[in-house]
Amino acid sequence: MNGRGQGLRALALVISVGLILSAFFNFDFSFLMGEKPKPLLRLDTPQPATSRVEEGLDFSAPGLDGKEIDLSKYRGHPVIVDFWATWCAPCRKQIPELVALYRKYNKSRGLVIIGVSCDLIQGDGVKAVAPFVEEFQINYPIALADERLVDSMGVEAIPTTLFVGRDGKLVSRIVGAGHAGEISASAKRLLDGVKGRSSPGIPNDSHGNVIDISVVQ
To answer: Does the domain spanning 52-212 belong to CATH 1.20.120.450?
Structure first.
């Protein structure tokens, strides 16, 4: 057998062994096939047919001050839950609008805003959050998310802003930082009440910039 034939036979043997290993040991041989490596961190795990978002939002997470933040505590209030990170430029764009909304409607109309930092998942961790909160004068409570929380809420990119009705059900969702005033308009609809919710599985298109948090950068 000539050298070329021996080479092809050897390659076929390697691929066969790789397929066997992949089948029995879940070994990733994609690099032999020229495929790109998968992201190191995936936050887009498929959700069950009936997710917690569809049944009604409920989560508990540690706050920046060490106290637990329990969303169910705010039933009876309109709630905005904003997923963000200190390193996310689009998040920075909309946080001042959220600060202004909380100042205007928290006491007058009972609006609750919870900022959920993703810095523990990706970034410099909690040490980066406190200086950021002070710099942006964030006046609403901050929770610290882990992978379990963002998975359960179906968050795949930030900023993601959830608008939750007084009954705990999702009213609308904005993915990305869109045009100025978009968050305020959605907040006003939440406060005034809507005659029918949009499907929780279909977020509002904001056409804004988003940061994919399914890949470690």
So the answer is: no
Place of tokens 């904001």: 206
Q: Which of 158, 134, 150, 135 is nearest to 85 (CA)?
A: 158
> What is the domain partition of the chain in residue ranges?
3-33, 52-212
Dihedral angle computed from the Cα positions of residues 130, 131, 133 and 135, in that order, rounded to the nearest 10 degrees: 170
Burial annotation 188-210 (CB, 10 A radius, 16+ → b, else e): eebeeeeeeeeebeebbebebeb
* Bridge partners for 38 per DSSP: none
Does the pTM surpass 0.90? The reply is no
**What whole-number distance in Å separates Cα of residue 214 and Cα of residue 39?**
7
**Any idea what DSSP says for residue 38?**
P
Cβ neighbours, 10 Å, residue 99 = 17
pLDDT digit string, tens, across residues 6-15: 554 554 554 4
Polymer length of the chain: 217
